[in-house]
Amino acid sequence: MVDCNQICFIGAGSMAEALLSGLLNNTPTSAKHIHVINRQNQNRIQYLSKKYGIISPKDNQAAIKQADTVILAVKPKDITHALDQWGMYFHPGQRIISVVAGISIPFIENRLTTRIPVIRAMPNTSCAVAQSATALCTGTHASEKDLDTAFQIFSSIGTVVVVDEKDMDAVTGLSGSGPAYIYYLVEALEQAGIQAGLTPSIARHLTLQTLAGAAHMLMETKEEPAELRRKVTSPGGTTMAGLETLAQHHFQKSLIHAVQKAKQRSKELGKSFSPSPR
Length: 278
Ligand SMILES: NC(=O)C1=CN([C@@H]2O[C@H](COP(=O)(O)OP(=O)(O)OC[C@H]3O[C@@H](n4cnc5c(N)ncnc54)[C@H](O)[C@@H]3O)[C@@H](O)[C@H]2O)C=CC1
Ligand SMILES: O=C(O)[C@@H]1CCC=N1
Hints:
Layout lengths: L6 E4 L3 H13 L7 E4 L4 H11 L7 H7 L2 E4 L6 H8 L8 E4 L6 H7 L6 E5 L9 E7 L5 H12 L2 E5 L5 H9 L1 H18 L4 H22 L3 H8 L5 H11 L2 H21 L7
Parallel strand pairs: 1-2, 1-3, 3-4, 4-5, 6-7
Antiparallel strand pairs: 5-6
Helix pairs in contact: 7-12, 8-9
1,4-dihydronicotinamide adenine dinucleotide binds next to helix 1 and helix 4.
């Protein structure tokens, strides 16, 4: 278990599930250390209790008060209501970690009535298999120990970088949303393999192993991606034919635009949440 005894999630959606399953399946964290609170859908809590053995809290307020770490995992549009509904139970002896895209720490701090340590995190769903790329930044009242605890939590389910809050929108566009771009690529490659005459299962196997192999090459050889690409590309060969087609269809530009758009969307999501005190 990381240096934090009790975690309470507010919001029981995809991200909360990815985080808690990552912690339960890949670290010594026990289900009895995790509580999850959801707005209305109690089926979701029952599903999480059944699948992961977490205890459905009888008293939500007590679950929040007892937690060392509260993880805010609601949609950006629901953050004001969630803070107004639950914020009165937060206290300075705990830390709040928000994974909510676009919502600034000053907004959260100003919405709360007491000086509570707040940390903003942008993980991705790969935390479910302890492979998240997470970025963290800290608020005004967060100590080194608070950052250290958040670092321990997220580094137990992937890698962690600490950034300035101004970079969180870029992080969200790149690695927060990033798994979806990769899954989209996989869907396209599989489809391409099938259209080229392979069976779906062979196409999937070859696509996934090619992806995993390329990721391992990048991480283990530490060679530049352009150099690794060069080694695959024989002059006048098959790869060159494929890459030329990708360039003609603006493959790199499309990805750059996708990350820029996602970054911009993260900024927009936060815009209507001004950090002025209520
Ligand atoms: N899905 C992803 O890949 C990632 C999501 N995030 C962020 O995580 C947050 C959650 O995203 P998802 O899990 O995908 O959304 P989701 O819609 O699946 O889950 C949000 C949950 O919050 C609950 N909720 C809403 N208001 C509440 C309240 N007042 N009290 C208690 N529960 C409340 C909803 O009932 C819902 O179950 C978002 O802010 C998103 O930006 C961050 C990184 C990656
Ligand atoms: O799509 C979204 O808004 C969230 C934030 C990062 C990944 N999913």
